[in-house]
Automatic annotation (TrEMBL):
Family annotation (SUPFAM superfamilies): 4Fe-4S ferredoxins
GO cellular component, one term: cytoplasm
UniProt-listed Pfam families: Fer4_7
GO molecular function: 4 iron, 4 sulfur cluster binding; metal ion binding
PROSITE patterns: 4FE4S_FER_1, 4FE4S_FER_2
Protein name: YfhL family 4Fe-4S dicluster ferredoxin
Alphabetical list of InterPro entries matching this protein: 4Fe4S_Fe-S-bd, 4Fe4S_Fe_S_CS, PSI_iron-sulfur_center, YfhL-like
Annotated PANTHER family: PHOTOSYSTEM I IRON-SULFUR CENTER, PHOTOSYSTEM I IRON-SULFUR CENTER-RELATED
Segments forming domain 4Fe-4S ferredoxin-type: 1-29, 31-64
Keywords assigned: 4Fe-4S, Electron transport, Iron, Iron-sulfur, Metal-binding, Repeat, Transport
Length: 83
């Protein structure tokens, strides 16, 4: 399951540099997560790094993008194959 950033985001800028896949970017009003790049840090870390550093706890799972750990690992392999 990909993650999402809710409107509780305070634009503190700490999540973006923590994302190993470059899935987080500044949106029109708040940061946003590209579900096509989000692997919940599977393949990189044991826990999603953006959730670990978020001071307002505004990065839940995105119910619109449900994926298994195996699917997240496949996405990680696809994303890193071109690097």
């Amino acid at each position: 399951m990909a993650l999402m950033i809710t409107d509780e985001c305070i634009n503190c800028d700490v999540c973006e540099p923590e994302c190993p896949n470059g899935a987080i970017s500044q949106g029109d009003e708040i940061y946003q997560i590209d579900p096509g790049k989000c692997t919940e840090c599977v393949g990189h870390f044991d826990e999603p790094q953006c959730q670990q550093v978020c001071p307002v706890d505004c990065i839940p799972h995105d119910p619109g993008h449900q994926e298994t750990r195996e699917q997240l690992m496949e996405k990680f392999i696809r994303l890193t194959a071109s690097k």
